[in-house]
Amino acid sequence: MSDKDDFSFSISKPSLLNLVSFVFTISTLLILLTTVSSNSWMTASDDGDDYLFGLSELEESEKYTSFSRDYDSREWIMFDGEEADSAGTVALIFLWIAILAVISSLVLLCLNNFGDYRSNYAMTVAFIGGGLAIIGAIVWWIMFPEVNELEEDGLGLGSAFYLTIIAGLLSVGSGFSLLKSPETDDPIWMPVRRTFSEMKNSDQGNLDLISLGLVLGAVLVLFVSMFTTSWMTGSEDDAGFGFGLYGVEYSFEEFTFTGDYSDPDAGEEVGDAMSAGTTGAIFLWIAALVAIASLVLMCLNNIGVYTSKYGMIAAFASGGLAILGTIIWLIMFSTPSFFDEIDLSPGISFYLAIIGGLSCIGAGACNLMSDRKQRV
């Protein structure tokens, strides 16, 4: 077994600039993945009604409900739907190419810093990705049709537009960081590679890596399940229904309606879905936070900074809480009277939460096995 306490990493100028580039690239990717699906590219507000223009649809939102329609769904009175749809399509092309470029930059950066493929392509692709994101946002702004009826309601560019510009600038900043980073003889992240190479040379190290991957995957899965409306789903003719922890969604062809359980007028329509959702959300939030704590503790344990079994214990606890919360939600949930004639069944979000819980338990089991191998 390798001595984990031998791990060291000095922050030199090249290391710092590459770390900045890495952080900028990750931030760019997260922002762009958020803005491509956001409906806050252009916004307006009229007596409590918010109009949110996205790249492919318009969302009319009130305090507890929202209603969205695709731009090409029908004739629009306020603006030219075909022009809005064309502007969104062009922007999506630019942004998805930018996202692919940023992902490529991230991969090339890691390969270069680990010494697997030495090149300057990460810098070039970072500039390209940032430029495409900025150009795509500006082109969308130019192509989007005028909406004269909402000018008095504060119609203006929204957060998604500005976030896309910021993401483009971050990617360009990532390129500049790599441009200013001095050349080094040895790969910059070689100390990290040596440590994990030593870990992979033993069964114990492989189990540690598997447990970290399982916990990380569980955190992502739990967050996805919490904020989607596919916990209980059903369909009737061309209409689809979905219940989440916080609200209900109804979709018909290109139209989508969403409503929050907290709406005072929705008491009879949602039945026990609100109390079930609140209980499930409490369990899953605690499970997700405990899983994050488990991930941190496992990392500290693996590099010898803080040796303990708390990461393993937290993984088991997180998995148990996630599964328990999901089962309690299913027991508490009762089909609202308004949907009695619709055949509802647990959806993908329900099963994702179960999978997240099982992943945490699997991570705890791997960590337990790793600990036993260490004693041998």
Weakly predicted, low-confidence segments: 1-10
What fold name stands as the CATH topology of the largest domain?
Answer: Butyryl-CoA Dehydrogenase, subunit A, domain 3
The total of helices stands at 10
The best one-word shape is flat
Give the number of DSSP strands: 10
Assign the CATH class of the largest domain. Answer: Mainly Alpha
Q: How far do the termini sit from each other?
A: 10 Å
CATH-scheme architecture of the largest domain: Up-down Bundle
Helicity range? 55-70%
Which class best fits the helix and strand makeup?
A: alpha+beta
Report the radius of gyration as a whole number of Å. 25 Å
Please give a quick description of this structure.
The chain has 376 residues and is α+β, with helices and mostly antiparallel strands.
Describe the structure.
With 376 residues, the protein is α+β, with helices and mostly antiparallel strands. The chain folds into 2 domains: 184 residues, Butyryl-CoA Dehydrogenase, subunit A, domain 3, CATH 1.20.140.150; 174 residues, Up-down Bundle (Butyryl-CoA Dehydrogenase, subunit A, domain 3), CATH 1.20.140. The chain is built from 10 helices and 10 strands. Strands 5-1-2-3-4-9-8-7-6-10 form a 10-stranded antiparallel beta sheet. Strand 7 and strand 8 form a beta hairpin. Helix 6 packs antiparallel against helix 10 and helix 9 packs antiparallel against helix 10.
